């Protein structure tokens, strides 16, 4: 079998970017949570907020560190595997991606250091300000990345001259038509991720009767946040879908598993899309609901995949199923939000074991949902790397062979397996050490004032020689 | 629409960024390269402690360089990276392993020896790969219409292996002189002992490459032997620095060997730039061929003008905070 460098490059990019994305998506939400805790603590003077904040800052430090390490790889991917794409889009992508790096750089240089190490060294107000700046910085960083990504879905503000895009309007290119939908959808996803991880860890502590008062507080806060955001995400997701329908109808057709353009299209709960035969098997659907959702009219016409030639259709089954996976998780989140609300009657939400166990398991679902959502939007764009203008095959590095791509793909998987295993293992140790472990907040001598994320967490990686 | 030459400014910024990266990440990679040869585990602790507060700041220059190159000289980015495809992967893998080792070594007990291997191996691999990049660059890259058309292993030649080994030795020299500056007692004595050998290795490679390059590349020969005599000052200054290292190591000076090593790197680097100018992807592509649109260069420059001074001040401040000798058992766990 001939190794296809395009397919292998796509898999590699999907792998390294998925691996990278799970860290920032968590830190963006967590940074805001920390800023919130610091605000409450600052206003009320209640030391409990600071204790919670200190624990979550330790977690933040480790996750941020993993994000930085995996981010280094990302800045080279466009050149190594997608050099034609990089060359054609450099006038826009170059500055935008650089601004992301510069923002992260700036953020790390200034305020992260204070947040991680400066609690006892700067006035309380300055510390609070740093917490806000870190939270805002994570959003600015994601803004640039999402702008670059959105431009690939809805290119604007550029003109193709001699094989290179020239920017004719920076504002049109940066604030391209899908940016704000994506930004809102992603921002809420980050909040949900942060909230569910906090809820899961707090629930786990409560199940083990550790620091009950504090963790009840954290659980309560995260449940209120989820109650607010999980339903809002449904609305924003719907709006984003309508925007996609306008600009990328084939992606929506794949999400719905709809082959022929028609009205009264059912919402498929189950189906086995068959790209060969250009049809679905084993369809189970709710009549007219897809039309109703997308066109707000049961008779509304929904585009079908057969509007375009076979080679311009995205791979339907993956888009169809990852979309359902994302939506299912979203609905489960909403369910947990309302169960939590209901359990507040009689103050039972923090001492109902099945609910706490369920929440603990829900801790991983936001990551799955986020990745599933990215799979939908990215795979749904194919065969286009820039919607309607450049295909993956045109964007790939011409000199790249299948063998080279396979070598690095396997290489990245091996490297990341080691790094990820060590990172997650360590993070679980930080969780297990819990809020009782106050070593991170004790006063440190000067050499400890390193501006490195991980050093804010003082939990040991393994047990001492001979113990256990 | 082009009131001033932004391409030249950007060339300066990128050249400066690369120099910053090489000097700063150079010594902490060097400490990693020397790790297996350190006299004992306590020495390894101290050596790692001496670079722990600053290494990740050093590496951010690499990320900024990568992104800046795409923005200002996209053609360099989109030719160099495909040409060095496997090499870039090896460098990144090395950097990742050593970065993670930094974080976990101090927090581990039973698994410490594994993190030692990851740190030393990753550092050496990354240094070698970077040396290969330099060699490939000097050697020239096969392009057609602005696209790399060579094979997967064009970067792997006797010449690039030599430059790879040369940079490993060079970074090790930066690492050993850094160790002289930052430590005392037994560790410092060890670093003093090995420095002359590392210097000899660096000079050997330096001489071979200097003799080899002008005869391999006609343009470089021209540059050095007929047009620009003033540039002979650069190798002379580099050799003066080498002599200075040799002298100061013997004279029990703590800071001079490191400063002189930085000088050796700086003048060698400038000599390299002088040989290549104005080509950014030899043998065919110049600075101006590779540049992005004027508007794009300007758009990013505005942001960088704001951030770079800030980063420099912050970097200087970090080094100031962590100035002085690092002693066994001190901080950082």
Characterization of the model:
The complex is a heterodimer of chains A (468) and B (333). Chain A is built from 14 helices and six strands. Chain A has 468 residues and is mainly alpha-helical. Chain A has one domain (5-247, 314-456). In chain A, helix 1 (5-44) crosses helix 6 (179-207), helix 6 runs antiparallel to helix 7 (212-247) and helix 6 crosses helix 11 (353-362). Mean pLDDT of chain A is 90; it is low at 440-451. In chain B, strand 3 and strand 4 form a beta hairpin. Chain B is globular, with a radius of gyration of 20 Å. Chain B has 333 residues and is mainly α. Helices cover 77% and strands 3% of the residues of chain B. The longest helix of chain B is centred in the middle third of the chain and has 32 residues, at 185-216. Chain B has helices spanning 6-34, 41-51, 55-72, 74-83, 85-105, 112-139, 158-182, 185-216, 218-227, 233-250, 256-276, 287-290, 294-321, and strands at 143-144, 147-148, 279-281, 285-286. A two-stranded antiparallel ribbon of chain B has the order 1-2. A two-stranded antiparallel ribbon of chain B has the order 3-4. The chains are: A mainly alpha (468), B mainly alpha (333). At the A-B interface, helix 2, helix 3, strand 2 and helix 14 of A face helix 3, helix 4, helix 5, strand 2 and helix 13 of B.
Q: How many strands in all of chain A?
A: 6
Quaternary? heterodimer
Estimate nothing, just give the exact number of structural domains of chain B.
1
Order of strands across the biggest sheet of chain A? 1-2
């Amino acid at each position: 079998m001939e190794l296809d460098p395009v397919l292998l490059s796509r898999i590699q990019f999907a792998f390294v970017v998925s691996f990278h994305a799970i860290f920032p998506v968590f830190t963006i939400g967590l940074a805001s949570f920390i800023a919130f805790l610091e605000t409450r603590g600052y206003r009320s003077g209640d030391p409990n907020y600071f204790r919670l904040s200190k624990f979550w800052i330790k977690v933040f430090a480790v996750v941020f560190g993993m994000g930085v390490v995996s981010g280094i790889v990302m800045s080279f991917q466009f050149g190594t595997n997608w050099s034609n794409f990089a060359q054609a889009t450099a006038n826009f992508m170059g500055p935008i991606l650089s601004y992301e790096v510069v923002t992260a750089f700036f953020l790390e240089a200034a305020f992260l250091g204070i947040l991680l190490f400066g609690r006892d060294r700067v006035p309380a107000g300055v510390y609070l300000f740093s917490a806000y700046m870190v939270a805002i910085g994570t959003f600015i960083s994601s803004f640039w990345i999402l702008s670059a990504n959105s431009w690939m879905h809805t290119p604007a503000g550029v003109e193709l001259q001699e094989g290179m895009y020239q920017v004719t309007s920076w504002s049109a290119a940066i604030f391209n038509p899908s940016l704000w939908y994506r930004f809102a959808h992603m921002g809420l996803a980050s909040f949900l991720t942060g909230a569910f991880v906090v809820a899961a860890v707090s629930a786990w502590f409560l199940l083990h009767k550790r620091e009950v008062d504090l963790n009840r507080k954290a659980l309560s806060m995260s449940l209120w946040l989820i109650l607010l955001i999980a339903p809002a995400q449904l609305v924003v997701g719907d709006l984003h879908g309508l925007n996609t329908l306008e600009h990328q109808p084939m992606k929506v057709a794949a999400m719905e598993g709809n082959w022929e353009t028609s009205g009264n299209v059912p919402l498929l709960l189950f189906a086995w899309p068959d790209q060969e035969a250009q049809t679905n098997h084993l369809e189970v659907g709710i009549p007219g609901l897809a039309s109703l959702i997308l066109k707000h009219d049961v008779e509304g016409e929904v585009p079908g995949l057969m509007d375009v030639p076979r080679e311009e259709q995205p791979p339907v089954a993956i888009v169809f199923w990852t979309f359902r996976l994302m939506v299912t998780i979203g609905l489960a989140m909403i369910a947990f939000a309302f169960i939590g609300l209901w359990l507040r009657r009689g103050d039972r939400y923090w001492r109902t074991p099945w609910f706490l166990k369920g929440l603990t398991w829900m801790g991983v679902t936001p990551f799955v949902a986020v990745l599933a959502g990215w799979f939908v939007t990215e795979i749904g764009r194919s065969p286009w790397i820039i919607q309607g203008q450049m295909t993956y095959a045109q964007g790939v590095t011409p000199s790249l062979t299948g063998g080279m791509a396979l070598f690095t793909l396997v290489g990245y998987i091996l490297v990341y397996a080691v790094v990820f295993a060590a990172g997650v293992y360590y993070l679980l140790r930080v969780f297990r050490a819990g809020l009782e472990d106050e070593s991170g907040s004790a006063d440190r001598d000067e050499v400890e004032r390193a501006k490195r994320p991980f050093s804010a967490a003082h939990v040991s990686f393994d047990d001492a020689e001979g113990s256990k | 629409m082009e009131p001033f030459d932004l391409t030249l400014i950007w060339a300066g910024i990128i050249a400066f960024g690369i120099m910053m990266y090489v000097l700063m990440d150079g010594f902490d990679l060097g400490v990693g390269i020397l790790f297996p040869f350190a006299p004992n585990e306590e020495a390894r602790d101290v050596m790692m402690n001496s670079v722990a507060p600053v290494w990740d700041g050093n590496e951010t220059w690499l990320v900024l360089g990568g992104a800046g190159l795409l923005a200002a000289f996209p053609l360099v980015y989109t030719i160099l990276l495909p040409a060095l495809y496997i090499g870039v992967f090896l460098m990144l893998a090395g950097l990742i392993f050593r970065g993670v080792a930094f974080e976990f070594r101090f927090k581990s007990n039973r698994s410490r020896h594994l993190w030692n291997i990851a740190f030393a191996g990753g550092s050496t691999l990354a240094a070698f790969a970077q040396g290969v990049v330099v060699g490939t660059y000097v050697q020239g890259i096969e392009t057609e219409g602005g696209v790399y058309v060579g094979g997967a292993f064009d970067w792997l030649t006797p010449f690039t292996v030599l430059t790879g080994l040369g940079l490993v030795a060079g970074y090790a020299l930066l690492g050993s002189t850094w160790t002289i500056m930052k430590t005392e007692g037994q560790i410092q004595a060890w670093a003093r002992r090995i420095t002359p050998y590392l210097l000899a290795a660096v000079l050997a490679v330096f001489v071979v490459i200097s003799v080899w390059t002008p005869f391999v590349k006609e343009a470089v020969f021209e540059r050095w032997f007929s047009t620009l005599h003033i540039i002979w000052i650069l190798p002379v200054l580099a050799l003066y620095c080498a002599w200075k290292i040799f002298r100061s190591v013997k004279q029990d000076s703590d800071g001079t060997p490191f400063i002189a090593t930085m000088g050796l790197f700086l003048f060698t680097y400038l000599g390299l730039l002088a040989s290549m100018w104005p080509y950014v992807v030899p043998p065919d592509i110049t600075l101006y061929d590779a540049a992005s649109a004027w508007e794009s260069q300007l758009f990013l420059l505005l942001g960088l003008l704001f951030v770079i001074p800030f980063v420099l001040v912050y970097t200087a401040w970090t080094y100031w905070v962590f100035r002085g000798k690092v002693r066994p058992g001190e901080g950082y766990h």
